[in-house]
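COMPLEX REQUEST
Ligand: flavin mononucleotide
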Amino acid sequence: MRIGTIEIDRPVILAPMEDVTDRAFRQLCKLHGADIVYTEFISAEAIRRGAEKSIRKLAMADHERPVAVQIFGNTVESMVEAAAIAESYEPDYLDINFGCPVKKVAGRGAGAALLREPEKLSAIASAVARAVSIPVTAKTRIGWDHDSINIAETVRRLEDAGMQAVAVHGRTRSDMYKGKADWSRIAEAKAACSIPIIANGDIWNADDAVAMFAQTGADGIMIGRGSIGNPFIFAQSVSLVRLGVPLPAPTYRERIRVALDHMRLSVEYKGEKYGILEMRRHYSTYLKGLPGVSKVRNELVRELDPAVITELLQGFEAHCGMLEREGRLTESGEYLNDHSPRLILNYQPNTKQSTIV
Ligand SMILES: Cc1cc2nc3c(=O)[nH]c(=O)nc-3n(C[C@H](O)[C@H](O)[C@H](O)COP(=O)(O)O)c2cc1C
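STATUS: Structure written out below.
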């Protein structure tokens, strides 16, 4: 697949996700094999106003590359102005959000709302493409609702407007995140245009990644929710898609250590207070299914000190190690004693001891 000077065979891409794909998470996904990463969406109006929080989201590091900045807005003027400002932060390309279904975006005529205003969608896309010298792509859904699926028309419009690729999430706006993404509509999009199509929606593991390429003929794939708490999905998918080689599931040690890396990166980029607060939503996904996870998570989300969080995670790893030595936990984190419903771990950070009560 080619976007500007970026050329990658069947890339596996991190989807833009608000409050998730910040610098820390992008870096983690890149380290774990993501070929391209996207920022969270950023409001064109906010960029134009110079709103600090939004401007901060434009920052990126060289080791993230290739990285795309995604913007959304509801007027040609705001999008053109924001695109020029975003370009000055030197992303590899710019992406326009024509798919967001949430009220604060679609309710204000941006994101997926533009699927109901095709002329305006074309006007925004072509004006942005003309306004910057880096490549511009778009991300969209298959239609507004099931009575108005228009993805073939949309991708042709976007191609005519100068988009260099289009990511297609196989749901309508009215689906929100319900049901299953309709991959056959992504195949329809692929057949309708000659620019690269990036297929998105419901890739939860490497087998899904292979199936998505096979069923849609897409040029690249994009993974969102399947990567949350699980950046391992990128290397697993890349390996299976490009080499035909399945990789083993991550061990519990790797999962705990990635949670720790994520926390450290979050603190590095956002400072101690916000870095720690924003990490809170991530612990349970990294540690999902491990014995005693709810207890350690409850402790993690109450802590503000990175050193104590580090101790808690290291203590949890030691605790899992003990269960493994006792033959009750496999390396891949499968707990073999789950017929014992009363297992509760009592981890004491001071003594670094765990007892089972
Ligand atoms: C928490 C969250 C935030 C999201 N934020 C964005 C966003 O900022 N821009 C965007 O284009 N899509 C956003 N999406 C949609 C995803 O990029 C993706 O299209 C969708 O989750 C389907 O892919 P998946 O099944 O791999 O998750 C978001 C999704 C989630 C779950």
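REMARKS: Residues 15 and 24 are 14 Å apart (CA to CA). Residues 252-279 form the longest helix (28 residues).
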